[in-house]
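User: Hi! I have a protein structure encoded as tokens and I'd like to know what sequence might fold into it. I'm fairly new to this, so please keep things simple.
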């Protein structure tokens, strides 16, 4: 379990600087879906990391992350990730 939390924290730490440097709307559903889909097998971990980041940093909306999870992995698996 601690290794999983460390991996999620590392992914969130890598994603946050990218979010702050882009001209795209921060965490729009389309942006999250496109970015996570391009990560392949690391996509679910990225979604978990983004949700952790959204919970810790309250200005980041969690709705687009949840919608992207459902769109990418379906209702059952997407909801199970979050």
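Assistant: Happy to help. Inverse folding works backwards from shape to sequence: for each of the 82 positions I chose a residue that suits the local structure. Here it is:
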């Amino acid at each position: 379990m601690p290794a999983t939390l460390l991996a999620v924290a590392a992914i969130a730490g890598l994603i946050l600087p990218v979010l702050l440097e882009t001209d795209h709307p921060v965490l729009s559903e389309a942006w999250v879906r496109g970015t996570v889909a391009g990560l392949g097998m690391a996509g679910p971990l990225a979604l978990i990391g983004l949700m952790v980041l959204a919970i810790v940093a309250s200005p980041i909306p969690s709705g687009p992350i949840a919608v992207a999870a459902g769109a990418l992995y379906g209702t059952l698996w997407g909801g199970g990730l979050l």
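A useful reference point when you look it over: Residues 2-81 form one domain. Feel free to ask if any position seems puzzling.
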